[in-house]
Design goal:
Keywords: Signal. Residues 1-25 form the signal peptide. The chain is of the alpha/beta class. It folds into 2 domains: 2-150, no CATH class; 155-284, no CATH class. Helices cover 35% and strands 21% of the residues. The chain has helices spanning 2-19, 22-25, 66-90, 100-106, 108-119, 145-150, 212-218, 227-231, 260-268, 272-277, and strands spanning 36-39, 42-45, 50-57, 122-128, 134-141, 178-182, 196-197, 203-205, 222-224, 240-244, 247-249, 255-257, 281-284. The protein has a 5-stranded antiparallel beta sheet. A 4-stranded parallel beta sheet has the order 9-13-6-10. The chain is elongated, with a radius of gyration of 20 Å.
């Protein structure tokens, strides 16, 4: 079991290096403190937005020779790995009430585009077993193309991207550069488009605060399970504000509730419009 966990961790590193594009290049490589959601045949790293899945193919009995048997086993393993990756994608929560599978059921266009991404998913690792079988691991970004397909249309987002983040020397002393929400102990589940509400149900953070470009390329929020790692993540800059969530809402338990007084404090800070608009948000989960 220990070797299997170690192998998955190494593969997640490969997933970031080989699959991640410019939008996530600034983030740290996956570590044991990232929030990784495990599934039977794959996993999702919710900090850097990478997914991996594995499949095993057996050599056919009617192969002409060993080389042909191994090649056919590899092709079969790749098909199975991509099928498992599809199941992983279908289960991803988009917001508090919708999964990727919900979108696929309602639109043939979505199905076609997601299958296209799957066909182009990268082979990250190939392991040849002593019995002739082959295990293949494939990887794909959740951000970028897939986000563009499944996230709400532009009218649900802020229309324009905010100005570029100021350089450290340009910041007002003590100005906040991001937001870290501690949601540990509440049974929160990660989602592509989480919201942050106050205790009166008024939205502090969501698609109306972020341009669609930012949401697609870097995700609405990063997730972590270690507070120090979250606080030092480049996503939230050098001086993030921290706040503890007091409740969770939504059918999928992905929307966070913070104290109204804290929400009002954030709303009155001029710099919050920039860091929230740039999706500089990290969420701490168990």
């Amino acid at each position: 079991m220990g070797m299997k966990i170690l192998k998955q961790a190494l593969l997640m590193v490969l997933a970031l290096l080989l699959v991640a594009g410019p939008a996530v290049a600034q983030q740290d490589a996956p570590s044991g403190e990232d929030y990784v959601q495990q599934a039977e045949s794959g996993s999702i790293n919710w900090d850097n937005g990478s997914m991996i899945a594995t499949g095993v193919g057996a050599p056919p009995a009617n192969a002409v020779n060993a080389a042909q048997a191994r090649g056919m086993a590899k092709r079969a393993a790749t098909v199975i790995a991509r099928r498992n990756l599809l199941e992983l994608i279908k289960g991803v929560q988009i917001d508090s009430s919708t999964t990727v599978e919900n979108f696929m059921v309602s639109s043939d266009v979505v199905v076609s585009r997601i299958r296209g991404f799957l066909q182009n998913s990268q082979i990250l690792d190939t392991a040849y077993m002593s019995d002739g079988s082959v295990e293949v691991t494939v990887g794909l970004k959740l951000r970028g193309g897939i986000s563009d397909v499944v996230l709400p249309k532009a009218d649900r987002f802020k229309l324009q991207a905010p100005a570029a983040a100021p350089k450290p020397e340009q910041l007002v002393p003590g100005a906040y550069t991001g937001l870290v929400v501690d949601a540990r102990g509440l049974g929160v589940r990660p989602a592509m488009s989480p919201r942050i509400l106050d205790e009166d149900g008024k939205e502090l953070y969501g698609t109306v605060m972020v341009s669609r470009e930012y949401a697609i390329q870097q995700g609405m929020a990063g997730y972590a399970k270690d507070q120090d790692k979250a606080m030092t993540n480049p996503r939230v800059g050098s001086n993030p504000m921290t706040v503890a969530a007091v409740a969770v809402k939504g059918r999928s338990r992905s929307d966070l509730v913070i104290p109204t007084a804290k929400a009002e404090e954030i709303r009155t800070q001029a710099e919050s419009k920039e860091y929230l608009g740039q999706a500089r948000v990290m969420i701490l989960l168990d």
